[in-house]
Design a protein that fits this description.
Layout lengths: L13 H20 L14 E12 L4 E12 L2 E8 L7 E8 L2 E8 L3 E9 L3 E9 L6 E9 L19
Antiparallel strand pairs: 1-2, 1-8, 2-3, 3-4, 4-5, 5-6, 6-7, 7-8
Length: about 170
């Protein structure tokens, strides 16, 4: 029976072997500790929604009530709103703010140096709360607002209700 001899590679120089080991150890250590790359994820798309409200706003300082019209564009928590207030109250312009968990805060610097701040509870059907109006050099005025959805369909008249025909 023939004997098989295995050839061995001998490294004649110890510094050469040490260099190889010093080169290989960091490679294996890095490969063992690094996590596989994560696939790129896209952030969730944030959609905008528009709500329209109108209703009474009462300046409780002056005891004056007027109709307020408010259009809100809500993107995530951010809100941009257009305000129009009928006479005898004033206040028309853009408000900005945020809505979180049903609570909404808006602020805007309007013409005539009028600053309005709104804070209230909002849902798809109504927006109600408190506001303050400030003009430099004048006392702060406080008020309340009770706005309902302006985009809600009107309640149809009952079908059993008689209708009057126009006279000829």
């Amino acid at each position: 029976m023939a004997r098989i001899r295995f050839a061995s590679i001998r490294v004649h120089s110890r510094p050469f072997a040490v260099k190889i080991l010093l080169f290989l150890i960091p490679l294996f250590a890095t490969a063992a500790t690094s996590a596989p790359p994560k696939p790129a994820t896209k952030p969730a798309a944030v959609t905008s929604r528009t709500l329209q409200f109108e209703g009474p706003a009462t300046n409780t300082t002056a005891e004056v009530t007027a109709t307020m019209h408010l259009t809100l564009v809500i993107t995530g928590e951010k809100v941009v709103a257009q305000l129009k207030t009928d006479a005898p109250l004033s206040g028309t312009g853009e408000l900005t703010g945020r809505c979180v968990g049903g609570w909404c805060e808006l602020i805007g610097k309007l013409p005539d140096n009028l600053t309005l701040k709104f804070r209230g509870v909002m849902n798809a059907h109504d927006f109600r709360g408190l506001y303050l109006a400030a003009i430099p050099g004048q006392p702060i005025q406080y008020g309340t607002f009770q706005l309902t959805s302006a985009s809600a369909p009107a309640t149809p008249a009952p079908k059993s209700a008689p209708t009057a025909a126009p006279k000829k």
